[in-house]
Amino acid sequence: MGGPEIERLIELLGKLPGLGPRSARRAALGLLRQPQARLLPLANAMEQAARTVRTCARCGNLDSRDPCTVCSDPNRDQGLICVVEGVGDLWALERAGVHRGLYHVLGGTLSPLGGIGPEDLNLSPLLARLEAGGVREVILALGATVEGATTQHWLSERLAPSGATISRVGQGVPMGGALDVLDDGTLAAALMARRAS
Ligand SMILES: [Zn+2]
């Protein structure tokens, strides 16, 4: 096999989600075979992303601008916030085009066993947004897992004093990072079928 540069490339690629050592070798080979067309553009895109992408202080989304593109869009319903577990869920809902309001990325779910408590979640910016007023509904789109349900329950009690309507998406939807695998129709149905929490 090749020199240390190639080994290093394969090693780093192998750390990407979804890529094992074998697919990392295949990816490296594909990139190295076309350095000008593939390897350099990818390296440049990565460098640019590393330099510009940051976490939106308002909602927790990843974007090269802060507030992010979603938060800065005046055409979105400012009174409607959809709370999701991760940025992947936000992107899935955006791709499906089923939510016309704003988002809030919680950054995880409560897990007493995993040692994740309320202080580990991105909560205070959400409370600040509710305190600032103008939010009439918060949709909780968290996982159908035990942790998701626990977080949902805890969050609806925590947010109740704000006066906003707290609703949750239709049950049986495997969210919490798994929104990605749902087709757009299912996502839309889940969001439409929300009910008071
Ligand atoms: Zn944002």
Automatic annotation (TrEMBL):
Family matches, as PROSITE patterns: RECR (PS01300), TOPRIM (PS50880)
SMART domains cross-referenced by the UniProt entry: TOPRIM
Gene Ontology process terms (BP): DNA recombination; DNA repair
Zinc finger (C4-type) stretch: 56-71
Superkingdom field: Bacteria
Any one GO MF annotation of this record: zinc ion binding
Any coiled-coil regions, as ranges: none
Domain (Toprim): residue spans on this chain: 79-174
UniProt-listed Gene3D superfamilies: 3.30.60.80, 3.40.1360.10, RecR Domain 1 (1.10.8.420)
Entry keyword set: DNA damage, DNA recombination, DNA repair, Metal-binding, Zinc, Zinc-finger
Record's function text: May play a role in DNA repair. It seems to be involved in an RecBC-independent recombinational process of DNA repair. It may act with RecF and RecO.
NCBIfam families found in the cross-reference section: recR (TIGR00615)
Protein family (similarity comment): Belongs to the RecR family.
Descriptive protein name: Recombination protein RecR
Lineage: Bacteria, Pseudomonadati, Pseudomonadota, Alphaproteobacteria, Acetobacterales
Name of the coding gene: recR
